[in-house]
């Protein structure tokens, strides 16, 4: 729980990972390219006080993750969103067994989501069913630009992907997190395009589609999709650190998301270990839309509380202490904010 100026915030970091990018796990040059790209994001978007050395960036381990994510008790709960990347890393990038063991040892603090890939075919469906039972899955992380043999990406609309969505529906895996954001070398930019979210969200209205990185750099495309699909959510991983390097750009991101999606469908994420959550939580609580960006309303404390944790807690049925809850809001509108009377006077 984070406290500031008499306000208390229940914080859910909805996108963390435990990875191993050390040289002995790199299958080829692409494994090094991938982690080097991650490190460039970290180095270019972090405050100097939060910079890590390159070697410690390659692997953190469970003990350090617990210390970094839950330091000072700021984060109440965190959710693993692993990527496989088996073409680049011998044991995969996300460390399944280590992360799962942590979540099982700390169920009050950690939830483990697992990946699936429709290109694994029927064997993958069998694995999904077995993993759902063993891991007690409530969510999945999809990486549509991951390489698989000769394939360099897939779409949510692929026929086999629909088989997996149907399996998720049957297994109670309701939260589908999808990387739809900046490209990481050597993955292909277009394989992260957001267009296929529209089709899948329409056909599976009982699943929640959390678009990680809120579609950046395709924010406008994402907003136009999400405003008409009430089961589409915005994850702020990678968007958050712009609060430091490009605060006006971050204000634009938040302003657009609040306008199009509303306050109930935006989720805070640090994207650990690209960044650690503490400074991002602190900066976000203090952040406000610049006054000269008059097209956006100020961000209220209640909105910040929802973004920082209450929205994710609702998706994952996390028990939020009564004193940290807000009264239930009306259902988020499925269209853009309606103009207030004062707005109409200038039309």
Explain this structure to me?
With 347 residues, the protein is an alpha/beta fold. The chain has one domain (11-323): TIM Barrel (Alpha-Beta Barrel), CATH 3.20.20. It is 38% helix and 12% strand. It is built from 13 helices and eleven strands. Strands 6-7-8-9-10-11 form a six-stranded parallel sheet. It has a three-stranded parallel sheet with strand order 3-4-5. A two-stranded antiparallel ribbon has the order 1-2. Strand 1 (2-4) and strand 2 form a beta hairpin. Helix 8 packs parallel to helix 10. The longest helix has 17 residues, at 29-45. It is globular and about 50 Å long.
Task: Give a brief outline of the structure.
By secondary structure, the protein is of the alpha/beta class. Helix content is 38%, strand content 12%. The protein has helices at 29-45, 54-57, 61-69, 96-105, 121-135, 159-171, 195-203, 219-226, 242-245, 247-260, 277-286, 301-315, 341-344, and strands at residues 2-4, 7-9, 12-16, 77-80, 110-112, 114-115, 139-142, 175-179, 208-212, 232-235, 266-267.
Structural class based on helices, strands and sheet pairing: alpha/beta
Strand order of the largest sheet: 6-7-8-9-10-11
Proportion of residues in helical segments = 25-40%
Indicate the CATH architecture: Alpha-Beta Barrel
What is the assigned CATH homologous superfamily? Metal-dependent hydrolases
